[in-house]
Write a structure and sequence with these properties.
two-stranded antiparallel ribbon; Growth Hormone, Chain: A; mainly alpha; 2 domains; about 425 residues; about 0% strand
Length: about 425
């Protein structure tokens, strides 16, 4: 099979799994669970997100090692995908008061979703040449945005008026739609994308190797201070990525509670913001090529600060759209430029190890503090103060980011560090 076809089938998995992230994590189930199932207790949703991400973060190092040394990547990817799909479909049976049932299903579904990404990413090196990694990875992000738009449109046309007696039945049916969408469009990667070959034989004790290597990397960065700029960047990334994930997880809850937006209005709102996210990725991608990823991230973090402050003062749906459009512009660029900056900072001979550490341990564990922090503040005061509190994460991340020294290649290919 031609490489272009393999790349397309590979990106379809991004198209597929976005159904889970947008319908379950962001738009429908988060609001349904927090406001209807749990009786408005936002901290329970924050707890569910935090628990699932802690477990995923702990699983990431050994899962990464298994992905590196195992010939069964598709088998592990299928296993975690099935866990996520089955638990998502079972959310149909979660009704008012079923707090523990709904919480457990989400935790397992999110673990399946997050852990599967480790094996999905492991296919990338075998799909194209190194010079095209960024482009092909970008195709996956783009397909994810398209998948989000597609499933949101399906749900928008499926849901009846909120006054309908069958309204919550169709809300619960949307979870089944998300599960079927996820499973159906993920099938091509299992059917048409071959298992990546290994240059070395399968190693034993992969889990033990993964844990040991992550411990050694952690010690080298934060105890021995061998890579001070990476340490600063990872800390900054941990803070602002925590706030981004929290805002995504609580956006629909905020919209329904503060502005009394209906589910149809919220879905339409997210369709618009997904569109601006695509535009933001292209615009800031061009900007990053000219001024560098560090300065570009700085620009997006300033936008995120405005989003947090704007959410505190927002009074109308129109104003909320302005805040959402701003967030859409910043979200894709924040994540893609962070990956680019990490690529600049990472020692060339240890790229896979450091990227696994960045995306796995720090990327996933950064979603632990924020959701629980937001939920507690929202319940003790209100959701406006909780949104404003996210600005502290962005501000601290912005300050620490400025202390990161970015490597720059001179004409003679010598590596030097400059403050950008």
């Amino acid at each position: 099979m031609q490489s272009k076809s393999k790349i397309f089938f590979w990106t379809l998995f991004d198209f597929a799994n976005t159904a889970f992230s947008v319908i379950i994590v962001t738009v429908i189930y988060s609001k349904y669970f927090s406001n209807y199932v749990a009786g408005g207790k936002s901290w329970l949703w924050g707890l569910a997100v935090s628990i699932s991400m802690v477990i995923s973060a702990l699983l990431s190092p050994p899962m990464g090692a298994i992905a590196d040394v195992s010939r069964n990547r598709k088998r592990f990817l299928l296993l975690f995908t099935l866990v996520s799909v089955v638990c998502t479909a079972l959310m149909f049976f979660v009704q008012k008061g079923d707090v523990l049932f709904g919480l457990v299903l989400f935790i397992f579904a999110n673990i399946g979703f997050e852990s599967g990404l480790v094996f999905y990413d492991a296919f990338l090196p075998n799909l194209t040449e190194k010079k095209n990694f960024g482009r092909v990875s970008g195709y996956g992000f783009a397909m994810g945005y398209v998948g989000a738009l597609a499933v949101l449109l399906i749900i928008m046309f499926m849901l009846p008026a909120s006054s309908s007696p069958d309204y919550y039945f169709y809300i619960r049916l949307s979870f089944v739609v998300a599960a079927v969408f996820f499973m159906f469009f993920s099938l091509p990667i299992f059917l048409f994308v071959s298992e990546p070959p290994l240059s070395s034989p399968v190693k034993k004790f992969a889990v033990r190797i993964g844990i040991r290597k992550s411990r050694e990397t952690l010690k080298a960065i934060f105890i021995k201070h061998e890579h001070p700029s990476i340490a600063r960047f990872l800390l900054a990334f941990f803070l602002y990525n925590d706030a981004i994930i929290t805002i995504i997880a609580f956006a629909s809850i905020f919209a329904s509670s503060i502005l009394k937006m209906t589910d149809a209005q919220i879905i339409y709102f997210f369709i618009i913001t997904q569109s601006t996210a695509v535009a933001g990725s292209f615009i800031f991608g061009i900007i990053s090529d000219h001024i560098g990823p560090k300065k570009t991230i700085t620009m997006t973090l300033v936008i995120w600060l405005c989003v947090a402050v704007g959410a505190f003062f927002v009074q109308s749906v129109y104003e909320f759209y302005l805040v959402g459009l701003s967030a859409g512009l910043a979200i894709g660029s924040s994540q893609s430029c962070s990956r680019s900056l990490m690529a600049l900072l990472t020692p060339k001979e240890r790229e896979a190890e450091f990227f696994g550490f960045y995306d796995g341990l720090f990327g996933k564990s950064s979603a632990v503090v924020g959701p629980l922090f937001y939920g507690i503040i929202a319940d003790l005061s209100n959701k406006r103060f909780a949104a404003l509190a996210m600005g502290l994460f962005f501000l601290l991340g912005l300050i620490i980011l400025q202390k990161v020294e970015v490597p720059k290649y001179k004409e003679k290919e010598e590596l030097s560090y400059v403050k950008k």
